[in-house]
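Justification of computing resources. Each target in the renewal requires a structure prediction run like the one illustrated here; the chain below, 235 residues long, is used simply to show the kind of job we budget for.
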Amino acid sequence: MHLVLNEARNVSVDYYGLDQPSKASAVMILPGGGYGFVSPRESAPIAEAFNEQGYQALVLNYSVAEHRGYHNALDDVMQAFEAIAAHQADWRIDPTQVILIGFSAGGHLAAAYASTAKTYRPQLVILGYACILDSMNELLQLKAPSLDTLVTADNPPTFLFGTAEDGLVPVDNTLAFMTALSRAKVPFEGHIFQFGPHGLSLGTARSADGDSEQIDPHYATWFPRCLEWIDRQDV
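Resulting structure tokens:
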């Protein structure tokens, strides 16, 4: 199902629903794309992978390109949560039990929303090779604070992963957010893989789109590790 949230900014949500989800939580996915586009490799493949594990899944196509903007994007996530609340019965999703997962620029948005939301706070947060530091603003063509400075004790438990070889979003971004979570005493788990370029998504053929360089079995272990982490959370 495709639902338009803001026609003027081309914002929409794609619902990947199960008739009988086995998990109480749902996943909202924020793909990467540098706020220039929404990456298809971090959209349907991620939603389908979570579907197979019993989760309802949503992909948010947030404001990008000429509509990009820090506050626009935060508003898009809020509208997505409001849509979940409005469709709670037919989508079989509790808006208080939503796991927010973001990749790269989508990770930037997920981290920003998780640190600033006043209502509809995510249950858990997953950040894949996320942009965090304000040194990334030029690349993202965005005006945003360093997101590690926004972390408080109210941040949700967070799972983070990335690669030390990432040449586009330095691993310092992930490490900075881990440090901020640690200082705020927010539960977190982080995995830094030595090898792998930026944007590996699942790291399997499912998300590689025919590119063998996007397949890395060791890096791909982030997904089962993440599932185990979710199951161990007291939420």
